[in-house]
Specification:
The chain is α/β, with parallel strands linked by helices. The protein has twelve helices and 15 strands. The chain has two domains: 16-353, 3-Layer(aba) Sandwich (Alkaline Phosphatase, subunit A); 356-436, 2-Layer Sandwich (Arylsulfatase, C-terminal domain). The chain is globular, with a radius of gyration of 21 Å. The relative contact order is 0.17.
Length: 441
Amino acid sequence: MKSTVLFLFISLTALQVHAKPNIIYILADDLGYGDLGCYGSELNSTPNIDRMAENGMRFTDFHAASWCAPSRAALMTGCHANRPGLVGRGAKKIAERITIAEMLKERGYATALIGKWHLGMGKGTHPLDQGFDYWYGTKGSNDWNGPRPNYGSFKDAPEKAWKTPLIVNRENKGPCPQSEFTGRYTMETVRFIKEHKDEPFFIYLAHNMPHVPVFASAKFRGKSKNGVFGDVVEELDWSTGEILKAVEETEISDKTLVVFTSDNGPWTMFKEFGGSAGPLRGEKSTTWEGGERVPAIFHWKGKIKPGINSTFIVNSDVYATLATLTGSAVKAGEAIDSHDISGALLEGKMGSRVKHIFYHHQPMAYRNGDFKIHFFTRERTRDPETGKGEPARKHDPPLLFNVKEDVSESKNVASEYPELVERMTKEFEAAKAAIKNWDKL
C-alpha cells in the first residue's frame, strides 16, 4: 500500500513539475523551406538547428500565411490570418482577441516578445497591451526605415542607410544597426531565460533576419559559402545554439518546449538576398507551396520523441496546442481556427486538420486532404527592380494538384478529377463566406 501511495505521489509531483512547461517560440523572417540543412540545404551550414531537428520532431507539411503580418496574426490569435479586421490599416480585431501571450500570462507565465511585432502600435495593439511583460524589438520589418525596398537598394545601399529603431517596452531607443539585431536578440533571450528559470515563461523570439536588407555581424560576415544570405542564416543557427545551451545550463531542458520555424516562404525575387523554397514552387507572397509551407521543428527533451511528421498543420494551430500543453483555457470565441496538435508532438499521431483556404490579399487557393486547388496564382509580389506591383492571374478552369505526390505542384490533374474540382470549388466558396462572417471553418 505504501509503495502504491509513493508511486502516485511521485507521478503527481512529476505532472505538477511539467504542468507549465516553458515555451520558446523562435520565428525567422522570410526563411525558406529549403534554407536549413535538415530540410536539404547544401549551401547553408545549420548544425545547431539540424541537431535540434535530430533530437526533436521535424514537420514537413507545416504552413503559415504567405506574408509577414497575417502570419503573425494567425499565430497570436489562433484565427485564420484573413479574418476581417485582424490585419491591415485600421485593423482593430487584434486588440479584441486574447493572444497566446495573454492566455499564458493569465496562467502565471512571465512573457517576453524579443524581436519584430508587426501587428500595430495603436491603442490596445501594442505588445505590452497584448499580454507581454517585456518587449525588445522592432515595430515591423527592418526595411521600413530606409531606401526604397528594391533590389538595387539591397545590393548597393550601405548598412547605415537603414535606420530601423529599436523599441524597449514603450521607449524608442533610436536606430539599431541591421547587423546587430540577431546578436542583441540572442543576448536578451538568454538573459530572460536565466532570470526566469525558476518560473514558467513564454518567449516569442521573432527575428528580423533573413528579411531584406540582410546584414551579418562581423563574426559571421563572409563565413558561409552562400554569400551574405548564408552568413545571416548561419548567425541565426548560432543564435539557436546559444538559446539551447542556455536552456541546458539552467537545467530546464525537460520542462522547456523550443520551436524553430518561419513566418512565410523566401523572397527569392531578391536573388542572392533571398532564400530557397527547396523542392517547392513559388515564394513569399504567393499561395504556391513555396510561399507558405515552412520549416518547423519542435524540441522538448524527454517529451517529444525524435522523428519526422507529415501531418498537415497551419501556424494558427499553435494556439490550441500550447493551451493543451500548459493547461490553459481557450475562452469561448477565441482561437476558432486552431487545431490541437499536441497528440502529434507527444505521441507521433497525425493531426485533425484536413482543410485550409489560402489568401494573399484575396482568396486564391484551397486544400482538402492531399489535393490543393488554385483559382488565382501569382509568381511574385512585384517587380524587384521597379517595385511595381504585379496582379494575380485568374484560372478558369482552376488548377488542381496532389501536393502529397507532387509537392512541386508541377502536374495539373484537374482534367482527371472533374467531380473533385466541382466539390472543392463549392467548398472554397463556403470557406470564403465563413472567413468573412467569422464563422468557424
